[in-house]
Amino acid sequence: MTQDGPDADQLWAALADPTRLRLLDLLLQHGEATASALATELPITRQGIAKHLLVLQRADLVHAHRTGRETRFTVRDERLAQAQQQMARVASRWGERLARIKRIAEATHNASSAGDAE
Amino acid sequence: MRIGGIVTAVLPDAITREIDIDAPPDVVWAIVTEARHLAGWFSDEAAIDLRQGGAMLLSWHGHGAYRARVETVEPPVTFAFRWVLRDGEEPVPGGSTLVVMTLIPTDAGTRLRVVESGFSDLSWPEHERAHYAGQNAKGWITELDELRAYAARVKTSRHRR
Fold first, then answer.
1. B96 pLDDT band (50/70/90 cuts)?
2. What is A5-117's CATH number?
3. Other CB atoms within 10 A of residue A4 CB
4. Which end of chain A is more exposed for a tag (fewer CB within 10 A), N or C?
5. What does the alpha-carbon distance between residue B76 and residue B30 come to, in Å, rounded to a whole number?
6. Residue A1: how many CB atoms within 10 A of its CB?
7. Which residues in chain A have their CB less than 8 angstroms from residue B112's CB?
């Protein structure tokens, strides 16, 4: 039942922060960026950005690649898609639950209406 | 700093689903809140103390028992509870999501709406915190708490709108 193991825990924990969501947004907009470049767009220090990027890396949400002295970060689309799929799964479970509630409620109601009519 | 954008568009913090039911709200209310019915549409077994703060236990055969806590009981309109994402945990804010079920009377019967929210409020797992604490990064944990408080303030102001 429910949410899909330790891997999913790490994924959701990484996403559970407005700054990290903002970082992912910036990376998606720019395609790739360095921590310094990201720091110019957010009201936190480069060190703060680096820590958040580390969390995102550990959750496989961003990929770091070095070119010369620079480290550039990109979003791992497939991992983001995975998060989206998990969210969709939660939604579809509610769809199934609501359908079951409807079935039970209508059966109960029909049974009691039939009783009233007699 | 703003919240929103591409990621929050594809990963909303809340899920909303609704369905129209040909039965009046009082019938739907019983199905939504009574243990014997919860064990039919939600889990394999269920227990519920139907009052604010009351305990719920939802069990699935082979998958363990999940705790939940009743948050709102306003018959026959609003039933809300928090439930955990991992078995064995306590349903406290920060470690759980909030499910709000609303029953809206319609000509044909009831529109039942469910909103599950709080996915982005989920706390860091303890081992993650321990890892950072071990790296002498107490400031980082404080920062996280501040960010979480910030997110809560933003969220509150969003809700007011």
1. confident
2. 1.10.10.10
3. 16
4. C
5. 9
6. 16
7. 98, 101-102
ipTM of the complex: 0.70
Average pLDDT over residues B64-70: 89
Answer positive or negative: Cα dihedral of B99, B102, B103, B106: negative
Flag if B21 and A84 touch (Cβ within 8 Å). Answer: no
What residues does each domain of chain B span? 13-122, 124-161
Residue B79: pLDDT band (50, 70, 90) is very high
Domains of chain A, by residue range, sit at 5-117
Side by side, the strands of the sheet bearing B96-105 are B14-21, B110-117, B96-105, B78-84, B64-74, B55-60, B45-48
Q: How many CB pairs under 8 A join A and B?
A: 135
Edge to edge, the sheet with strand A62-67 lists A33-34, A70-75, A62-67
pLDDT at A83 over 80: no
Residue of A12, A21, A96 best to disrupt the B interface, most CBs of B under 10 A: A21
Residues of B in contact with A83 (CB under 8 A): 11
Q: Which of A43, A87, A108 sits opposite B15 (nearest CB)?
A: A87
Residue of A nearest to B12 (CA): A87
Residue of B nearest to A5 (CA): B86
* Cross-chain CB nearest to A12 (options B114, B119, B154): B119
Alpha-carbon distance B123 to nearest alpha carbon in chain A (angstroms): 7
Of A43, A48, A105, the CB nearest to B28: A105
Task: Give the gyration radius of chain B's Cα atoms.
Answer: 18
Which CATH homologous superfamily contains domain B13-122? START domain (3.30.530.20)
Residue B50 in contact with partner chain A when CB distance is under 8 A: no
